[in-house]
Design goal:
- The complex is a heterodimer.
- By secondary structure, chain A is mostly helical.
- Chain A has one domain.
- Chain A contains seven helices and no strands.
- The longest helix of chain A has 57 residues.
- Chain B is an all-alpha fold.
- Chain B is 89% helix and 0% strand.
- Classes of the chains: A mainly alpha, B mainly alpha.
- The interface between A and B is medium-sized, with 35 and 25 residues.
Chain lengths: 259, 53
Amino acid sequence: MFQLANPRRFYDLAQRLEPWVWAIAAILLSYGLYLGLIVSPPDYQQGETVRIMFVHVPAAWIAMMAYSGMAVASISSLIWRHVVADLFAKASAPVGAGFTFLALVTGSLWGRPMWGTYWVWDARLTSVLILFFLYLGYMALWSAIEDQTKAARAAAVLCLVGAINLPIIKFSVDWWNTLHQPASVARLGGPSIHPAILTPLLVMGIAYMVLYLAMVLQRTRIEILEHRLALALAADASRADRDTSTLSHRSAHSPEGAL
Amino acid sequence: MSEYLAMGGYAAFIWSAYGISVVVLSGLTIFGFRRLDRLQSALREFDSERGRS
């Protein structure tokens, strides 16, 4: 576990795992889309629009999962100061923002025909919109602070403060009167959905989780390379400074020093 | 087939939801790989330049 705190080791492991993770995601996504778009019947109340659920609910799950992962990484970053934890959290943000955006848009595309409106300012919808802004704020904070060590710490604190929003999202449908239906999969007493609808939903859910994993591994590799490049450039710049000072010193004495 | 595509009159909502999901997820994936490629070549270039001097 602690070996993974070494960026190079993490990079190599991620690089070796990634092709398999992408492949499994592709297989599961194809199977999930086949089940969701072809095999599953229309719902007796929602009609065909129930198919939107197969891309809406998994996106919402990943939106929360990505933030939870970011929060765990932020805690490890604050306690152990692991570079990989910082880079993993940083890498999760655009992925989480993407899935949150999809949860909002697909939900609104379902809401229009079923509720009669694209949007209502109720607890569930508003708290997920706040989640989306938390992702954007987190990314903005990273790019606003030049010193990457300071940026990592500030971003980790912001992430943990924002984590209070996660239980609010989860329980918003129970705590407040809302148009959004309560949990129907992850609830006490088991799912309340017919298997014909539940199976494609769960397959798509697992497919999205695997896809999320692939995307986060890829983005963490990107951040590791960015980090490596920044370190190399900084080292080069300081060496260049030293070189020019010794160069001018030497060239005063010998012509070959002027190279 | 056209009956299937019409999705019981909800085609616009259903296909938009699937369309935007495909665009966002594949967009993130493809841009990610392009950035990885660019970074890898930048680092290679950097290493070879440093190797020469």
